[in-house]
Amino acid sequence: MPTSLIHRQTLEFLLFDWLKADQYLHHGAKQMHNRASLSALLDRAANLAGDKLASCYRQADEHEPVLENGTVRMTPEIRNALHAMRDQGFFGLTQPFEEGGLGLPVLIERACFALFAAANPAVAAYPQISLACARTIQSWGTPAQITQYAAPVFTGKMFGTMCLAEQQAGSSLGDIETRAIPDGPAAYRLFGHKMWVAGGAHTMADNIVHLVLARVPDNHGNLIPGVRGLSLFLVPALIRQANGEAIAQNDISVTGINRTMGYRGLINCSLSFGEGTHRPGGKAGAIGWLIGPLHRGLAPLLQLMNEARAGTGLFAAAIASAGYQLSLRYARERRQGRAWTEKSAEAPQIPIIRHDDVRRMLLRQKCYSEGALALSLYCARLSDEESTAPDADLRRHATLLRELLTPVAKCWSAQWGLQANHLAIQVFGGVGYTKQCAAEQLFRDNRLNAIQQGTHGVQALELLGKKLRLEDGTALELLGETMHKTLLKAGQHTVLAAHGKHLARAMHLLARVTRQLLTDTQQERAMAQASPYLEAFGHVVVAWIWLDVVLCCEHVGGNTEPHFFAGKMAALDYFYLWELPSAELMLNQLAQAGKNTMHFPDQSF
Amino acid sequence: MPTSLIHRQTLEFLLFDWLKADQYLHHGAKQMHNRASLSALLDRAANLAGDKLASCYRQADEHEPVLENGTVRMTPEIRNALHAMRDQGFFGLTQPFEEGGLGLPVLIERACFALFAAANPAVAAYPQISLACARTIQSWGTPAQITQYAAPVFTGKMFGTMCLAEQQAGSSLGDIETRAIPDGPAAYRLFGHKMWVAGGAHTMADNIVHLVLARVPDNHGNLIPGVRGLSLFLVPALIRQANGEAIAQNDISVTGINRTMGYRGLINCSLSFGEGTHRPGGKAGAIGWLIGPLHRGLAPLLQLMNEARAGTGLFAAAIASAGYQLSLRYARERRQGRAWTEKSAEAPQIPIIRHDDVRRMLLRQKCYSEGALALSLYCARLSDEESTAPDADLRRHATLLRELLTPVAKCWSAQWGLQANHLAIQVFGGVGYTKQCAAEQLFRDNRLNAIQQGTHGVQALELLGKKLRLEDGTALELLGETMHKTLLKAGQHTVLAAHGKHLARAMHLLARVTRQLLTDTQQERAMAQASPYLEAFGHVVVAWIWLDVVLCCEHVGGNTEPHFFAGKMAALDYFYLWELPSAELMLNQLAQAGKNTMHFPDQSF
Asked: How far apart are the first and last CA of chain A?
């Protein structure tokens, strides 16, 4: 089993013992795969992560992509790593067996990507975003579009991007101005400027398929304002003829590269559509095709964003995990200081893992990184249930639950994953603040995840303003029922019954505060509390995840070593002693908030 | 009044209305200065900060110092900024009027340095560290040493450094191995390797005076182990003859430069003493002289470290303040989205400061940055009281209180200052994650402050293990008495009486938990809680600071605008609603902690 930046035994335990990944194999793959073969696949992913991704982690940071004469130049190791992922089939894991894929659950894909992201999130982000695009095309495109623009992504030949934000419309997608003008029976010509396009320009794939949010004038030439008037377009970098040969570059140009704090191997740029820079004729417009219904681009867009958000949460967990593993190794080796009770200055120095304060920092990292990983993988399993559950009701339930938990998993992992990376640096001390230590870069990398794919503030409004109101609150009821099953199991257990009771109290409080906020006659006051509410919600959910994981660990019993179990138990205890009470405190404060305390003059800041 | 990265009205209010800075002028300066002239000095500092320091903030980050053939090359703007500070007399603010200084209180120096640090902490750190060295030499050196090595620092001609840590002894100073061998009646020859020397090598001053921690063999040639055997040495980079002319480089060489996450304009290097690289004869050793008593270097070392720690806290507050001011300006200008209650997609977008979630992020920054600044300035005033209070008892009390509060101010400012900088990025959104936004750099810069001059973990042991036990707990009693005065004033007030009662409860709880930890029969168990204890302690102290500031604001009344007061009141309310309860929760958890929850097998991580 190769050493990796994700604790391998924990990953396998979560996948197989807790989430039963092997039960979600696609039809054709059932005879091909079992736990052992999937474990061998994880070995391959871990080896690839170490050999090709981790090996260029610092390189990709030091030599960020640069724009030269309209072309992007980047360090060749990134290309090599991506081509190795492609060649080993890691773009096509979830594709049906019959179509050349491996027919594996989303869960297994996410597990592999966690290994990749822990080794090099910037590089792993290219396929992660590309796959989100491809699956959106798969869900909403025509058969020809799927063949031409989704299938090549699953073989790693084509990459994808999301072109959503614009300068005047960062978090406010309803304000985007890019226009798509009909051109013939099916095509459109796009004109506009897009920002923050991750993976927006490079030469590492045969083609790049951009999914672009734009507006189409109605029959009278008017634009429908707001999110209702949005449509999603498939706009390839290279336009191909029917015979598949490239004929021309589409009318898209790179107008700038963002130099970022971290994730520097992932090119992030501004793109201009329809500036005519590549076409002698001038303002021709970028050729594109509608994906999903006209003026109702929100549905395919949400699929795209939800998958990207799930990926963001997973990556945040993986980066946190990498910091945890690295600082843990250091703490075992680095000797410094003595026990508080040691009075002799001549006694040998001890490994810093023996200092309680260092242990606390490591244990907190374990709570955050493993909690975030478990939550992300749980959400991945919901994706699998959506396609494989035996009846429509169960599939629908999985969808609702995944919709509800996506902003929670994204934000919780980003917030506490960053905190974990902060603590990793702290364990290293001065070394952790230098470029010679990967923990330094991990911290910078993870800072992105609270912003990309919608900030915490946006996700909080999404949770409180939309997700909780889905189908009259069914999603929250479903979550409550699911958590209740864990409480029943915990109730049977001598030690864990106490944790169960504690969780039940927190759940009760969360339900009460949720009702209060949703029924507040002053919705503005309620919505002002969305961010702390999201934070507390996340903590209650992760408290449940930890309890469920430990119950499973206890149940599996003989298969888990005592040390493995003791570690999970220590993390659970820590979470229930130090973390869950903070969430309860926040919820109590939310319940008491009588007035909107943010109402004071702007000049008073 | 020049715009600056510290809210100027707040700074003046804290200095003059709250802390009465003008009452701490030195003897000779009393006729020269008053509030108006000191305010004019702050104008000069703010202008200099803007013109020379802020202007090269990004430059200093992008072009970090490099080592070329044993010489350090750095961007010339840093030199220009430092020479401007020197030429305008900012190195000598606190020196006696009679000796060419301005005879100003430490408080005013710190206020000026807060302005400098907000503009460019890496550059401002050179004089900050240099002054700590000079004052240590002033306290412990001979008159000749003071003339030769402290006086030139106060005129900005010589810079200073602290050479403490070694590879095998990072946080454990008792394990340092650098040796000092007597050479003649007064001099020593030093041999050893030092790490993390900030400002350790450059050509921006006529000379650099290093304060070096080392061990001297006793009469039998043996070394005394542990901190008891440490001595502090003055080791200049250039050795001068009695006539003042440089004759030779001392036997010190730069062995490496640390490339750091932030503070990149401040060179941070490893130095080798006594390698003989600069002296043809070989292993001659670096010439140095004892500062303070032999084998009892801890006393001068503590003075040096305490001042450096106070500076670290102040700088963390200043960096937080810069992020707050920048994100505040952005929030006022940037239009994005609409009110939750606005149903029309065609309504114009609103400045993001109108969104409650953004307001919360700004208000939190205000709480943290202004709270940290107030606490740091309060500690500076204690330094002034130590030298100016009318009787010895009061001076002694000021010392005890400053000793107690130094680790608290350092750690609280570093922890919550970084959190403020995190929120500043979040207000900017995607832009905040790019190099075009200073908030990105501020966050990286402030990450250092939880590490340098002793990590949180080290400071926590210092607080619980030493400072609280000083003179049988007198320091904590004094703090309690001081806080009690605030409670009495609050009790008279209709609105603030409630805050006072809340604070009194928190103080009572803190006192109870402190007693419990100090008298715990298992000191190892108690010391394992040092870090959360320090964190909670800091929150209670800052809650007191905020209440005292608002009481003063209320008292000054007519002099403060209503908007100014409303802002302070909003911050106070926020702190008491959301922050102080977290500290109380932590203290309650500490009180309940029955066993050391960090006791589980190392293999379980």
From this structure: 55
